[in-house]
Amino acid sequence: MQLGAFSVSLSVRDLAASRAFYEALGFSVTGGDATQNWLVLRNDGVVIGLFQGMFEGNLLTFNPGWDQHKQELPHFQDVRELQAELDGKGIELAVRTDPDGQGTGYLQLSDPDGNVILVDQHVPRPKA
Fold first, then answer.
1. How far is Cα 86 from Cα 109, in angstroms, rounded to an integer?
2. How far is it, in rounded angstroms, from Cα 11 to Cα 4?
3. How far apart are alpha carbons 35 and 118 in whole angstroms?
C-alpha cells in the first residue's frame, strides 16, 4: 500500500502562537494561508500542518501522489485503489471517496485507539 507523503495535522487554538512556537523549534512556513486559519511548516523532511478551528483533534495525514517535498509522483496508488484495498481487508472507513471519481479525493479512518487518519489526494488520478 502506497500512502504517499506523511504529515501531522494539528488542531490548534491560536495559529499565531503555534506558528511562533514551531518556528522556535526550527520549522519554517512553506504553505497554507493564515487568513484562512491554516499553515504548513517544514523542518527538513518533517512536515506539520497547523489548523485553527477546522477540525477536532489531531490527524495523521497521508497524501498519495506527492513525495515528502510535495513534488508530484509520476506513478502512485490512487485514493480509490487504496479505498478498495482497505475495503478488501475489512477496514471500516468513516469517510469515503467517490469510487468513480477521476480527480482528487480523500478518505478517513481511525486506528484501534481512535487516532484519525486522513488520506488526502491533491493530484488527479494517474493515467493507466
1. 10
2. 22
3. 23
One-letter amino acid at 49 equals G
Domain that holds residue 78: 5-121
**52/84 Cα distance (integer angstroms):** 32
DSSP SS3 for 50: strand
Domain count, the chain: 1
Provide the 8-state DSSP code for 36.
Answer: G
pLDDT band at 103 (very low <50, low <70, confident <90, very high): confident
Return the pLDDT at 128: 59
Contact by Cβ (8 Å): 50, 14: no
pTM of the model: 0.87
